[in-house]
Amino acid sequence: MLISKHWADHNRKFAHFNFVYPVISRRAKGLSIGINCTPSGACSFDCIYCQVRELRPVQPSVDEIISELKELLSIYNETKLAKYFPGVEEKDRMLKDIALSGDGEPTLYPHFKELCEELSKENCKVVLITNAAQICEGFEHLTEIWGKLDAGTDDFLQVINRPKKKVDIAEIESNLKHIVSNFPLRIQTMLCKPSSDEEIESYTQIVHRIYETNPRNLLSVQLYSVARQAAESSVKPLSWEFLESVKVRLQEKNSKLLIEVF
After folding, report:
1. Could you tell me the pTM of the whole model?
2. How many CA atoms does the CB half-sphere of 225 hold within 13 Å?
């Protein structure tokens, strides 16, 4: 299927741009303009499913990022980027969001708050995709925060996310509770290693506790597996049946929770 091909190709090198790039996103359900504010790959995790291969020792300014964004938005408004996504229907090329994502952890960008302020001036949904290992100023300027929760225990956190700094699953849970207390949150869970019943049970309990912190602000839980080649070749996608089984476990714990499987 043509659109699946584009889901599997989130190349951050686009035309002559250095820090912005368009992708057809399955989780955004359409076109997402990514912002790569950490092309150096600065990150507090070293996830086994990371897809970053080529890093650049450069730190863009806020002005550089915003200038590129405005240029790309202008091209989008004129052409809907039809030239760059041949064969993709226009309905699947409609702009859904601007996403702070890229080659590293966006919250580690030294001008993160200022960048979020500038992005909030655009007439578009602005999303942060974060590993939730750190909280920083600027969240108040975002539309939604998509926070990672890939594990339910410290042991599995070390297997999947391999933190570079001292952080445990309790701190990740605490950060996600802080976010959902104040901002709209979607939990993102990458499933790329089979896990035990005990691990899944611990994970579902954490999700439920986050939900109970502020049910209105927990918009959904997004379960997904590998769609693009990970940096480590041993990492492979898990079956749809396994993802659905985790969804069932979450629904058994909380039937009111919206769970999306990709």
Report:
1. 0.91
2. 16
